[in-house]
Amino acid sequence: SCTDPFLANHAFEECLKIRRRHAILDPTNMSAQLEVGLVLARLGLINEAEDRIANCLSRSPNDRQVVFQSACVYSIISGVTSDRDTSKRCRNRAFDMIAELLKLGWPDMG
Fold first, then answer.
1. Which long-range contacts (CB under 8 A, 24 or more apart) does 91-95 make?
2. pTM exceeding the 0.85 threshold for the entire prediction
3. Are 57 and 67 in contact (CB under 8 A)?
4. How far apart are CA 53 and CA 59, in angstroms?
5. Can you say whether residue 44 is alpha, beta or left, with left for phi > 0 and alpha for psi between -120 and 50 degrees?
6. Backbone phi, psi, residue 35, to 5°
């Protein structure tokens, strides 16, 4: 892990360029779309990250991997935003996603 925020941000920006290119190649690849959402969240691009995840969830609402990665994105957003309401909303949404995972039969509960 990188302890220098400038270097970390630069690395995430480069990662986003690569992930976006990958996601464009196959828009139906949910893993590629979710990976873009994760990097967007890390960069604090909250609206874009939430839009990406909402799109994935609307296309694959019962896909456990999509729900899990969405929970991860919401969790990251809750930690990077300085807005308390956004943080609370995303934290709650992450927990809602985990509850949904359990309903969908997510096998890793330990």
1. 95/71
2. yes
3. yes
4. 10
5. left
6. -65, -35
Residue matched to tokens 């997510």 = 106
Token pair belonging to 52: 């990406």
43-91 pLDDT, tens per residue? 999 999 999 999 999 999 999 999 999 999 999 999 999 999 999 999 9
Buried b (16+ CB within 10 A) or exposed e, 13-28: eebbeebeeebeeeee
Q: How far apart are CA 44 and CA 82, in angstroms?
A: 10
Q: From CA 43, how far away is CA 28, in angstroms rounded?
A: 24
DSSP string, 42-78: HTT-HHHHHHHHHHHHHH-TT-HHHHHHHHHHHHHHH
